[in-house]
Amino acid sequence: MQNAKNVLTIVQIALAILVILGILLQTPSASGLGGTIGGGSDGGGGGYRRRRGVERTMLRSTAVLIAVFVVVSGAIAFISARIGS
Fold first, then answer.
1. DSSP code of 51?
2. Cβ neighbours of residue 69 under 8 Å, at least 6 residues apart?
């Protein structure tokens, strides 16, 4: 059980790094809260716009990585509770 916990911890660290990179590499669609509400000065008619191509792929990939990170975190918590450490 301890070996599985160690492997999952390494996987969790790798996922955390990938999630951070995925979030940082995404193109911002508005300039802060003002752009989201509609006061953005980017000339795009507000902060909302559809994501296309690579942006959509990055968004979905990041969402999948976050979901896997949550599952791995739950598995680590479950294993830790079972082995008592």
1. -
2. 12, 15, 16, 19
